[in-house]
Amino acid sequence: MAASRASALRRVARVLLLLLVLGLSAQPVLANGGTIQLADQPAGPYAVTVFTSPSPIRVGTVDVSVLVKRGQSEDLVLDAQVMVTAEPIDHQGAGGTFEATHDQATNKLFYAANVSLPTPGRWKLTVQIAGREGSGAVDFTVDVSPALLGMTPVELTCAAIPVLGLVALIFVRWLKGLGKKTTSDVRPHEGAGEEVRPPHKTRAAPEAGD
Q1: I need a labelling partner for 49 at 20 to 30 A (CA). Which of 88, 131, 182, 203 fits?
Q2: Domain locations along the chain
């Protein structure tokens, strides 16, 4: 019973380790969701919904996901060209323009862009849409926090992988040692299984003169 419990714990540890590796190796962006910045905002002939992630936004790369609909209808526009421009407000920072595409999105109904925000402070993001119905643009502002521990999310993830991997390895080795100890505890006791014979009865010697 104890041996099976230790075996189950080892299996759970392996699954947790696998999930940890998969989670750390995944991109921290491309969420296609997150914080809603704009909801059905008119942009020329389009209605635009914009999400950003992660939340809060920190120095580094932010995912900007855009859903484009035709006017006030629920028809999605999937063949437009979508560009996202980032500009710092009242502080120094290298802005830029980034193309949002379906290929960069997990949900292919979205256009997604990996936008670089290299400095903390307020930024203005402008989403420009061009398609067969015409063109339009919307903009919004975001506050960018300093990088956690002075590192971007990607750098922080890379730094955490060796540490967490070492902790997981120590945990798995501890479970293996627990399994060996449990196995030794359930060994049969000495003498177990031996045939038990009834005690031999000796006949009393006859008395003299009988």
Answers
A1: 88
A2: 2-22+158-181, 31-146
